[in-house]
Design a protein that fits this description.
The structure holds two protein chains of two kinds. Helix content of chain A is 70%, strand content 0%. Chain A has helices at 6-21, 27-40, 47-66, 69-106, 124-140, 149-157, 170-173, 185-217, 225-257, 274-280, 283-294, 304-322, 326-356, 362-385, 389-401, 411-433, 446-463. In chain A, 39% of the residues are buried. In chain A, α4 packs antiparallel against α5 and α9 packs across α14 (362-385). Chain A is an all-alpha fold. Chain A folds into two domains: 6-180, no CATH class; 186-475, no CATH class. Chain B is α/β, with parallel strands linked by helices. Chain B has one domain (40-320): Rossmann fold (3-Layer(aba) Sandwich), CATH 3.40.50. Helix content of chain B is 47%, strand content 10%. Chain B has a five-stranded parallel beta sheet, with helices on both faces. A two-stranded parallel sheet of chain B has the order 4-6. A two-stranded antiparallel ribbon of chain B has the order 8-9. In chain B, α4 (78-85) packs parallel to α14 (296-312). Chain B starts with 10 loop residues before the first helix and ends with a helix. The chains are: A mainly alpha, B alpha/beta. Chains A and B meet through α1, α8, α16 and α17 of A and α1 and α9 of B.
């Protein structure tokens, strides 16, 4: 069930209405059943996979809490193997086999291992990571094991964030299932506004940009450098609006019922460096990798080469998390390289800035840093969006050659896309630098507020793409 | 004080309900006003792609009517048909639309008058199952309110189409810019059409490509629509020609859809002509604008061939009478 579909509207309205008339102590049951239904709308049988990891992690959590020393560690390892095992089979098995086949072919050998004919369960990487954070936190002593099987199941399956996050931590979410959330006007209207803004980003901006991006990136060999530059910039906004739009709807839907999910995006394209970008982009995943992998590897409290290695491996794995394809791995590697390069060159860049006098004009310096960061991020997105590595290199070559006219099958396509991006930038610019000024959506005048959100719906009806595809991050 | 939320008479709820009603009222009023404004300007257009659809559905009384996708639109030129058949002509082919759309246009036309000849341009892999074909029914949304005869076809677009069409703006979704341009004089000069026909003037300069058509899933609903199309023409005593026009593609196998289409046409005594592998065109790239579209020179040549067929047809004399 997609968040931008009519079935979801009916589902959300029904579940939320029943939620508020259900006694507090029975609400978890309603949410669990509705979450199961929500998940089973995609591929019903895959609920069994989810059920398998839920049972394993539920008991692992209890045993980890009860045990000490090596035994405790053993239960954690058992839980992690179960989770990573499921992820590996469904997400990486065929990819690894394909690469093995390629390798063996190089030696003139045949690959005896068969391929699996399976579909990737929707949102597997998200709920697997959320489940892993549960057992790790119990192991670290930051979280008590949940004894109520239904509540624990709901922690993994809570429908607003089940298929594409935010990847929650048990400390933030588990206790909320026992809270008594009342019908609160301000909170509900805030949640609904977030959902509407998310829907706008998805339908008006992301899906509109997708038309141009898909048309060009699916056949980059026929496109010109200028076209591919525009398509890459469009993709940067497409993926941002698609994923942050999803997150807004998820966080908003949860908020309506009283639940507070973590912020997942914080205007990432205003970042002044790559490291800042990763503090603003897909925050729930970045912090997951930081908390459970980077710090476990020693973080930056190790030798310099080891620090670089830690950074690189974290980003490499982050790329692999996104998909079983070399394009994602290279995308992760490029980001890892950016960070390491930024650390190495920090001192020299400061000197250069001093020499050319950029430090004396801080606003210009800031704008320059934002622009450079955006260009670097866009370059990395080429690998993320390209259908394969060949296509990615074709795109880069064509951009470098920078020849030929702009592909424009229909001028309205580019006009709507540019209008959408401009509006987004204006809204985010206001939020980033002019908080409390020029408020339209949060105006003190009720009529302005009503009209602004009504216009958002009208904009969706006028400019939205209603036959767009699913959310990009569902595939992960 | 209450202990459960179930029986709560909360001011919060009434406040929320009242605000929601006011908000929905504002949205409704805006939707009605803007939607009707868009409707007015949509039907006020006098040129362009959207206007051609309106003209085909609501105004044309041409004796020879062309229906089909972009291939229909660019392959049948009025000057040949009108000059040689002495019959009025309109090309109602529309880019990026499929059988569902063509059938809807036919239904609207047959409700108003009976053309003497209808030519349906049939594509290779016409019956290929593709969700995109249903999405493309959005071309018909502006006519949903005023054309009850096409409603059943439009509702094939999705389960929720009736609900979406409660909005006055939705039928004109993504058309704001096109409607605005369509109401300007500039649009008339931009891409001129001649009785619906839009000539393509460039020449294809790439070598012919081989294409092996594999078996593909067919859409049984689309086959039924085609059957209805044929039967409606036969019942209305309209002479129907189903024609698969030329491609600059070297097809290695015969196409499954063409086989099905021909079988249905044969059952109903309707002429089905397949030029998709015609050597005259296949060996002559200068007649093409791209692999799937003839240029103006190709269209004139092809139209002459079709008119030859029609004039040779035994029934032509009775059609003229």
């Amino acid at each position: 069930m997609l968040f931008d579909s009519f079935p979801f509207v009916f589902f959300f309205l029904t579940v939320t209405t029943i939620y508020f008339i259900t006694p507090y102590n029975k609400r978890w049951l309603l949410l669990l059943f509705s979450s199961c239904y929500f998940y089973m709308v995609f591929v019903p049988i895959y609920i069994l996979i989810l059920g398998f990891t839920i049972v394993i992690d539920y008991f692992a959590g209890i045993y980890i809490e009860r045990s000490t020393g090596a035994r405790k560690r053993l239960f954690l390892i058992f839980s992690l193997i179960a989770n990573i095992g499921v992820l590996s089979i469904f997400k990486y098995y065929n990819f690894l086999n394909e690469n093995l086949e390629y390798l063996l072919h190089g030696f003139g050998l045949k690959n005896p291992i068969p391929y699996l004919s399976i579909l990737l369960p929707i949102g597997l990487s998200f709920h697997t990571f959320q489940a892993m954070s549960y057992t790790i936190e119990i192991y670290r002593g930051n979280q008590a094991a949940e004894k109520h099987f239904g509540i624990y199941s709901l922690y993994v399956m809570f429908y607003p964030q089940l298929v594409a996050g935010p990847i929650e931590r048990p400390q933030n979410l588990l206790y909320q299932f026992r809270e008594k959330y009342k019908f609160d006007y301000d909170r509900i209207s805030l949640g609904l506004k977030m959902m509407l803004w998310g829907l706008f980003k998805k339908l008006v901006i992301a899906d509109r940009l997708a038309i141009y991006v898909n048309a060009t990136y699916n056949h980059p060999e026929y496109q010109t450098g200028l076209t591919l530059i525009i398509a890459t910039v469009f993709f940067a906004f497409q993926i941002y609006c698609d994923f942050s739009g999803y997150s807004d709807i998820a966080i908003g839907a949860a908020k309506v019922m009283g639940f507070k999910l973590m912020t997942n995006f914080n205007r990432p394209y205003f970042a002044r460096s790559i490291s800042e970008f990763w503090k603003r982009w897909h925050i729930s995943l970045s912090t997951w990798f930081k908390d459970y992998l980077y710090i476990s590897l020693g973080g930056n409290r190790v030798s310099v080469p080891r620090w670089y290695f830690n950074l690189f491996i974290v980003f490499l794995l982050s790329g692999l998390w996104h998909g079983a394809n070399w394009t994602y791995i290279i995308w992760g590697a490029v980001n890892g390289f950016y960070l390491i390069f930024a650390i190495i060159s920090r001192r020299y860049l400061k000197k250069i800035n001093k020499v050319i006098g950029l430090e004396r004009v801080p606003k210009m310096n800031q704008a320059f840093q934002i622009l450079v960061t955006f260009i670097l991020v866009c370059f990395a997105w080429i690998f993320f969006r390209a259908n394969n590595l060949n296509d990615a290199f074709t795109v880069i070559k064509k951009i470098a050659a920078f020849k030929g006219p702009l592909y424009m099958e229909n001028p309205s396509m580019l006009i709507y896309s540019s209008l959408g991006i401009s509006f987004l930038i204006l809204v985010e610019l206001k939020k980033e630098y002019y908080k409390g000024h020029f408020s339209i959506f949060n105006s003190q005048y009720k009529s302005v507020r009503y009209l602004s959100f009504a216009m958002l719906i009208i904009a969706i009806l006028v400019f939205g793409v209603f036959d767009g595809g699913q959310f990009i991050y569902f595939q992960f | 004080m209450q202990t459960t939320p179930a029986g709560k008479t909360d001011k919060n709820f009434y406040r929320f309900f009242r605000s929601l009603m006011i908000f929905l009222l504002i949205v409704g009023l805006l939707d009605f006003g803007i939607g009707n404004c868009l409707r007015y300007f949509f039907f006020k257009q006098e040129s362009g792609l959207l206007y051609r659809s309106t003209f085909a559905m609501e105004k044309t009384t041409a004796s020879v009517l062309i229906l089909g996708s972009s291939r229909a639109n660019h392959h049948y030129t009025p000057e040949v048909f009108e000059k040689r058949l002495h019959l009025s002509f309109y090309n109602a082919g529309r880019d990026g639309n499929f059988l569902f759309y063509h059938y809807a246009v036919l239904k609207s036309v047959l409700k108003r008058y009976k053309p003497k000849i209808v030519i349906l341009d049939f594509r290779n892999a016409e019956f290929l199952k593709d969700k995109n074909k249903y999405d493309r029914l959005s071309s018909l949304l502006p006519y949903y309110r005023t054309h009850p005869e096409i409603r059943a076809i439009v509702e094939l677009k999705s389960h929720y189409e009736k609900l979406k069409l409660l909005s006055s703006i939705y039928p004109f979704n993504s058309l704001l810019f096109t409607i605005a341009v369509g109401n300007t004089e500039f649009n008339k000069k931009r891409k001129e059409d001649i009785k619906g026909y839009v000539p393509l003037n460039n020449i294809w300069n790439r070598p012919i490509q081989k294409d092996t058509i594999n078996l593909y899933p067919t859409d049984s609903l689309e086959i039924k629509i085609f059957e209805s199309f044929v039967k409606d023409c036969v019942n209305a005593n309209v002479k129907l020609y189903v024609i698969c026009s030329p491609y600059f593609i070297d097809f290695q196998n015969s196409d499954y859809s063409i086989k099905i289409g021909k079988a249905i046409a044969d059952q109903n005594n309707v002429t089905f002509l397949d030029y998709s592998r015609d050597s005259l065109f296949k060996n002559n790239p200068t007649l093409f604008s791209d692999m799937s579209h003839l240029n103006n020179e190709g269209a004139i040549k092809f139209s002459n061939i079709i008119v030859d067929k029609i004039t040779n047809d035994m029934q032509l004399s009775s059609i003229r009478r």
